[in-house]
Design goal:
oxidoreductase activity; oxidoreductase; globular; mainly beta; 2Fe-2S-bd_N; Putative molibdopterin-dependent oxidoreductase YjgC; 27% strand
Length: 90
Amino acid sequence: MAEQPYLIKVDGADIPAGPDQTVAAALIAADLVWWRRTRRYGRPRGLFCGIGACFDCLVRIDGGPPVRACLTPARNGMIIDTDRGGEGSP
């Protein structure tokens, strides 16, 4: 039997995530194409390389240190904080 989709909380809003989906894939599927800004110029950043090399997709999960969304598997109930309105990257 296939695993059912679940919800993750992103900046206070629930978005669906599928089994075997990364955090970045769930964000993109929810039309969130950027989720942090650069420190120097405030330019939006999100998924770029998709393989963990560029660090453009950093998010905080469950209050922890920044992690790469493209490498982090989504799991039911996780709380993701982005920097969509902040001063610089997480």
